[in-house]
Known about the structure:
Elements: H1 3-8, E1 16-20, E2 27-32, H2 36-53, H3 58-74, H4 76-87, H5 91-110, E3 121-125, E4 135-139
Antiparallel strand pairs: 1-2, 3-4
Amino acid sequence: MHDDLLNSLCVKTSGTVIARSPIDGAEIGHVSYDDAASIETKIAASVVAFREWRNVPAPRRGELVRLFGEELRAHKDALGKLVTLEAGKILQEGLGEVQENDRHLRFRSRSFAPALRPHHRERTPWPSHDGDMAPRVRSR
Length: 140
């Protein structure tokens, strides 16, 4: 199904790629390419997973997002070092990236709270095509 797309994009489907540090070009690992059949399998699995995920109640999804943030905090030092290695940043920047992602996850996990109230409506300024910012009702 996606073979034509993969071929048109000249996507490699065999062999390995060497991951190098942007700091000094040193080899830090290898990543194997997937073949077309493996990519098709993963795409199909992601479609099934999405269909299941969208049926999970919003409060439960928010709780899972919050728990993921806790995992980031628990492994902040190791993840900060990984960002440093992969992105060529100093350690403080790597730690800051992890902290920023944690902050974002905490914010997003709270955004699921309105779903706890049945028949909740959110009035959000939503720009129309003419630039008007009049509030429009959006169901959750």
